[in-house]
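stage 2 :: seqdesign
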């Protein structure tokens, strides 16, 4: 039987296939995959992470055409495709746009629960930065509230050089 006959649905040439559900035992495998890797973050990423590590400064890129400020920084504007981006310091404080609270222990979590995964629109930025939020009482968090970056003492040049964000008193 040709694959074309099967696709056209010619009843004389198409054999009924048994349902996989009838012949297959349902099975679930729980596991974790750890895949260590190294990659170059590029010129834009390098400038961003070196600024975090060495100066505790959060940089974004500003498009000179549409004037949007992107954090994390981008090499080209996602709105108008301009490639002549300019560096701009933003934050370190901003507005909590969205969040969810995690209350369970897991070895892969970078901080102790409860903590939150949040989107933070830093002062001077037009886009949100996904990061962690901590040092709060769960009922205290509200979208629109002010938060600020808490930097690690020993920074390594990655996004977790900002340990987390916390509510501004």
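stage 2 :: out
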């Amino acid at each position: 039987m040709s694959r074309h006959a099967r696709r056209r649905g010619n009843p004389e040439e198409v054999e009924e296939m048994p349902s996989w559900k009838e012949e297959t035992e349902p099975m679930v495998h729980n596991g974790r995959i750890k895949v260590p890797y190294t990659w170059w973050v590029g010129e834009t990423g390098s400038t961003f992470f070196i600024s975090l590590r060495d100066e505790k400064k959060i940089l974004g890129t500003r498009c000179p055409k549409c004037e949007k400020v992107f954090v994390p920084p981008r090499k080209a504007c996602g709105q108008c495709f301009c490639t002549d981006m300019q560096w701009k310091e933003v934050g370190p404080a901003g507005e909590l746009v969205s969040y969810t609270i995690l209350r369970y222990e897991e070895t892969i979590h970078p901080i102790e629960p409860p903590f939150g995964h949040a989107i933070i629109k830093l002062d001077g930025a037009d886009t949100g930065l996904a990061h962690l939020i901590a040092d709060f009482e769960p009922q205290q968090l509200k979208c629109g509230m002010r938060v600020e970056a808490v930097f690690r003492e020993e920074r390594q040049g990655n996004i977790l050089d900002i340990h987390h964000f916390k509510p501004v008193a």
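stage 3 :: structure notes
- Confidence is low (pLDDT under 50) at residues 1-6.
- The chain is about 15% helix and 30% strand.
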